[in-house]
Amino acid sequence: MRKIIAINDCVQTFEGDGIPVKRAFPVPGKREVDPFLLFDHFGPINYEPEGATGVPAHPHCGFEAITYLLDGEVEHNDSWGGKATIKTGDIQWMTTGSGLIHSELVTENFKKNGGMMQGLQIWINLPKKNKKVKPGYQHIHKDKIPVVKLEEKNVNIKVLVGEVLGQSSSVHTYSPVSIFDIQFTKPNEFSLSVPNEQIVMVYIIKGELKFKDTENLASKGQMVYFDQSAENLLLHSLSQQGSYLVLAGKPLNEPVARYGPFVANTDGEVKQAMLDYQAGKMGLL
């Protein structure tokens, strides 16, 4: 079984219209976890009617991003024509590539009525050869997300990205990553096979995990980092209702230069991306 490297608390910060964010990385001491660049759990926050706005138009380039909406409603729009209403349980996958401008504003319905908002946003680095690909957008309705049901294990696996036990996500990625929400309906153990060449992390959305190689427990809001000593990842949930996000990916082992929303391989490329944005080459929104 893979052994634990660390169990870390997230850093509390704020984004957009003041929505609280628990950030696993980048934070002091942990810049990125190749090929993953950023992990945020935004919310939960309960908005009063007319209290929510969202995130207005801003640029991105050089990476891919997934949003897994746990509660709420968000309207995505981007300068390459991507447009969708993301509701509770849905995911969106955005390839920023050569650069785009997008906004993530709450829907008119959510703004009018208020309600709970929370979700996960993860940035994944694009390989150098794909840094300048044409931007793209994919919206996957919650009913179209494959689910592997293992009744004998009291486990349901939502296949957000990648493939597990014969079920494959429809999300096309340039980066070699897998993202699964493993949900336990009773306390139990479950072993997942992940190739040694891939790094693995597990974020605790809700519930509590215990591990054989440590007396420590991992609980809600913590990120668990594993080594690459074996292919099997063992999850032992102590909770009646546990939800654990598994993130796995093959490191790109390429230099990373980043400044705010821009990601490249060199500082010079970051500066060029900023000039491209200022010149309108990432489109208008």
Number of helices: 2
For the terminal residues, how far apart are their CA atoms?
48 Å
Which structural class is indicated by helix and strand composition? mainly beta
Give, in order, the helices and strands.
EEEEEEEEEEHEEEEEEEEEEEEEEEEH
* DSSP strand tally: 26
Task: State which percent range the strand residues make up.
Answer: over 45%
Biggest sheet: strands side by side, in what order? 1-22-19-24-17-14-13
Estimated radius of gyration: 19 Å
Approximate shape: globular
Portion in helices: under 10%
Task: Give the biggest beta sheet.
Answer: 7 strands, antiparallel
Average pLDDT figure: 96
What's the layout of helices and strands?
Blueprint: E1 4-9, E2 11-15, E3 19-25, E4 36-47, E5 54-60, E6 63-71, E7 73-78, E8 83-87, E9 91-95, E10 100-106, H1 108-113, E11 115-125, E12 136-140, E13 147-150, E14 155-161, E15 163-164, E16 167-168, E17 177-184, E18 188-193, E19 199-206, E20 208-211, E21 214-219, E22 222-226, E23 232-237, E24 242-249, E25 257-259, E26 262-264, H2 267-278
Antiparallel strand pairs: 1-22, 2-3, 3-4, 4-11, 5-10, 6-9, 6-11, 7-8, 7-10, 9-12, 13-14, 14-17, 15-16, 17-24, 18-23, 19-22, 19-24, 20-21, 20-23, 25-26
How would you portray this structure in words?
This protein is mainly beta. 6% of the residues lie in helices and 55% in strands. It contains two helices and 26 strands. A seven-stranded antiparallel beta sheet has the order 1-22-19-24-17-14-13, with no helix packed on it. Strand 2 (11-15) and strand 3 form a beta hairpin. The longest helix has 12 residues, at 267-278. The chain is globular. The relative contact order is 0.21.
